[in-house]
Amino acid sequence: MAYVITDECVSCGSCLSECPVEAISEGDDKYKINAELCTDCGTCAEVCPVDAIKAQK
What we know:
Layout: E1 3-5, E2 24-26, E3 31-33, H1 43-47, E4 53-55
Antiparallel strand pairs: 1-4, 2-3
């Protein structure tokens, strides 16, 4: 399962450079994660200052 960025995202960009497979990109109102590229490493969730990145169930 891929990680997802919730509506709590404040578009700070801290997750963008942390993704080792470049699965994160800037969206219109928040960042988004490409589920096909995400390897479930969790690095993005660890650096998110507002806890807006969750493991998809």
